[in-house]
Amino acid sequence: MSLKIGGQIEKVNGRQLSYSEFAEKYLAQNQPVLLTGLMDDWTASKHWVSANAQPNLLFFSTHFGKSKVQVADCDTREFTDQKRIEMSVSEFINHWLQGSRESVLYLKDWHFVKEYPEYQAYITPRFFTDDWLNIYLDNYGMHVDPDTDQVNNDICCSDYRFVYMGAKGSWTPLHADVFRSYSWSANVCGRKKWLFLPPQQVNLLFDRHEQLLAQYGTKLVNMKNTVYDIFDDISEIKFPGFKKAIWLECTQDQNEIIFVPSGWYHQVHNLEDTISINHNWFNGYNLSWVWDLLLRDYKEAKEYIEDIKDICDDFEGLCQRNLAANTGMNFKDFFIFISRLSLANVVELYYLRGESSSESSIWHCSAIVKHFALNLASIRKIALKMKSEAVQGNFGIINLWETLSDPKFIKLCAGLGRIYSVVHEEENWSCTVKKVLMADFEKYGSQVCSPEDLVTFIDHAVSELSSNCNEQSTLLSVLYEIQPRQQK
Ligand SMILES: O=C(O)CCC(=O)C(=O)O
């Protein structure tokens, strides 16, 4: 059965696109786009590609050959993904050079930046720098084991900045990205074919059995149980909606970057020997996608073990452990994450206001102030959602004083400052590690323990920051524009 193709992904010259156009058209609308012209200065584009435009495999074995990496066997399915094998980069390259017909191997999810921080292979394009996920993971682990209070590295991975390398014919099965994050993927070398299904049509990919169960209320839909390879002969009995799906297509050439929006299912094929750089990320624009997924996975995890509820001492704790194991974070991790980020945004605003004595100060030009306010608005909205969706449980405690003096948090603030000076091209704004002035925070309670507390903290901070200040309208109007009726 052939796929119905509804159109191609729009291609835009990234050098002629402003950040606000990108944010309005693609981030906010959750639409894919193919961007050109953004990779010219990359070291990777020089070192990783040979004169004949093929991957420079020798460069990899010479410089990074000892790295241990995950390699997918593209011909072997294991549950919902391809079978993974661990090997060294040199072993992988030897296999590639031998041109083995037995199996096509695909090196995936190589944490290249983490492993080689000194080697600046590329510069993340400005459009993708507003990345809360990786900046957070640069300083904190995502999941903390409740029993030991230690970061659990089995579940939480160190970051989501990857290198992918595969010979012609290697491919990635149909999936939506981790946490329903955005992703961007840059072809340093080679070509890829992408097939996309918008989130509005995702229900067409469900297994009929799952749909029936969902319809009769006996089980929630397990969205993970979807089609694996859209080019397979898909059973009409098992997936009756599949033939109605209308796909968007894209061929991505060398030096082109694709932006993949939240929740869009996609399947990817390397049409030639290809090396790409891929990041997963989220920010204020798609945070609600992440929360909605977490809530859905939680309900699913709970439903799954409902039978043992009565004999289980800590049923809720078990649900949260399962949630973290399946999704990579649980409610507490997510809550701590958004609380630390709110505090970091508030610190930045205090810092900016402190700098605002001179006429030329950044507070007056306000694009950055507005961005921090938008961030707080989106976090506030999610906290209200968490509260209204009657989610209960142990959210953990953020102790403001401890957090403010923690070197990890100070680094998070510095990183956040760096992000927005890049996004708004404010190179003059000092991005040195910021000293938090504790006196600014004396008026706040010392703890944030629930979504309700977080909303109160944000409201209090914005009202404090707006007092005695000519610019009060920027902050207040941005924060409450999204919920106009709540403006005091
Ligand atoms: O390039 C690939 O094979 C898969 C990449 C992908 O799925 C992504 O970046 O979201």
Notes on the protein architecture:
The C terminus is likely disordered. The radius of gyration is 23 Å and the shape is globular. It folds into 2 domains: 233 residues, Cupin (Jelly Rolls, Sandwich); 157 residues, no CATH class. It contains 16 helices and 16 strands. 37% of the residues lie in helices and 19% in strands. It is an alpha+beta fold and 488 residues long. Helix 12 runs antiparallel to helix 15 and helix 12 packs parallel to helix 16. Strands 2-3-12-9-14-7-6-4-5 form a 9-stranded mixed β-sheet. The N and C termini lie far apart (58 Å). Strand 4 and strand 5 form a beta hairpin. The site of 2-oxoglutaric acid (AKG) has 11 residues, from strand 9, strand 13 and strand 14.
Keyword list:
JMJD6_ArgDemeth/LysHydrox; disordered C terminus; 9-stranded mixed beta sheet; alpha+beta; 2 domains; 16 strands; 488 residues; single chain; 19% strand; binds 2-oxoglutaric acid
In total, how many domains does the architecture comprise? 2
- Distinct ligands, ions and cofactors found in the model: 2-oxoglutaric acid
- What is the fourth-level CATH superfamily of the largest domain? Cupin
- CATH C-level of the largest domain: Mainly Beta
Give a quick account of the main beta sheet: strands, pairing sense, barrel closure.
9 strands, mixed
Pfam families: Cupin_8
Domain JmjC: 113-298
Protein name: JmjC domain-containing protein
InterPro entries: Cupin_8, JmjC_dom, JMJD6_ArgDemeth/LysHydrox
Short précis:
Helices cover 37% and strands 19% of the residues. With 488 residues, the chain is of the alpha+beta class.
